[in-house]
Structures are given as C-alpha cells and as structure tokens.
Amino acid sequence: MVNDKVLQIRKAIWQIPALIVLAAITAMLTNAWRSDGIPLVGDWSVKARFSDTAGDPMVISLELATEQFESGSALFLDARPESQYLEGHIQGALNLPWQSVDHYFMEMADRIDGSETIITYCDGESCDLSHELALFLKEMEYANVRVLVNGWTVWQQAGLPVE
C-alpha cells in the first residue's frame, strides 16, 4: 500500500512538468497560428509605449516642447491630480486630471484650441496619466497631441519656468 502511494507520487511529479511543457507548446502553436496572435517579443521603448491607436509615436522631446513653450504655440495640460498640480506645475499649464477627466473636460473644452499643439505631461517615466489623457484628446478629435514623458521632473531639472 505504501509502495502504491510512492509510485503515484513519483508518477505525479513526472506528469506535472510534462503537462506544463505540453500546455506551453500548445499555447505557442495556437498563438502562431492565429492572425491576431500576441507577439512574443515586444517593443517596450518609450516611443512604442506612448503611441496612438494607429501606432504613431506621440512623444515630444524636451527641446521641442521648450521651443513651443517659448513661442506660445502649445498648450500644456497637466494630467496629474489637482493636489499635485497645486504643489507645482509648468508655467501656464492647465490642470486636466486624468482620473476626473469626465468631470473637468467639459469645463476645459472651451480653453483648448484644436489648432495648437497640446502637450500632456505627468511625473515619472512609468506614469501613464499623460498618455491616457492624450489618447482621450485624440478621440475627441484634437489632432496635434503630444506627450512629454516624465514631464514635470525633466522640466524642473532643465530649470524651465514653473508655478
């Protein structure tokens, strides 16, 4: 009886990895066979992560954002929560917090000119608030929307005007 249990345990120990390998091979073959399969190797660069639904990059460099700031040809939108915006923001930037975009957008719509460049930003390279806000604005048919990645930090580090 004890030997039977030991044999069953040995059999199970061998079968578990075999089933995992078989499942992984089946999943990979199914993924390769499908026309909409998930790529096994992805592009996780900043440009690829911060792109629109068509795959076009939305990232703007600090240099170009600074030029547009100085010429007054861009509107800066801070996607961070209001409390962080009040602690400090890019000079002249408006606050359109992504978490409350439904509430704030109607109030802000008349202040957003669709003909100028709109630059969204938040803080931290992994912060997606600015990207989500930029995608929302694209859906609202604002054509020239860009994302300043890690905007608040890089703006301050460059010694550019803040409020």
Treating each run of at least 4 consecutive H or I residues as one helix, how many helices? 7
Give me the count of strands.
4
The helix/strand class is alpha/beta
What's the rounded overall pLDDT mean?
Answer: 88
Uncertain spans, ≥5 residues at pLDDT below 50? Answer: none
List the strand order in the largest sheet: 2-1-3-4
Main beta-sheet annotation:
4 strands, parallel
Strand content: 5-15%
Residues in helices, as a percent range: 40-55%
| Rg, Cα atoms, Å | 24 Å
Give the N-to-C terminal Cα separation. Answer: 79 Å
Order of helices and strands: HHHEHEHEHEH
| Shape verdict | elongated
Keywords:
alpha/beta
Task: Give your account of this protein's structure.
The chain is of the alpha/beta class and 163 residues long. The protein is 48% helix and 10% strand. It is built from 7 helices and 4 strands; from the N terminus they run αααβαβαβαβα. It has a 4-stranded parallel sheet, sandwiched between helices. β3, α6 and β4 (145-148) form a beta-alpha-beta unit. The N and C termini lie far apart (79 Å). The model has no long low-confidence stretch (mean pLDDT 88).
Summarize the structure.
The chain is an alpha/beta fold and 163 residues long.
Please write out the topology.
Blueprint: H1 2-33, H2 46-49, H3 62-71, E1 74-78, H4 82-87, E2 94-95, H5 101-108, E3 117-121, H6 129-139, E4 145-148, H7 151-157
Parallel strand pairs: 1-2, 1-3, 3-4
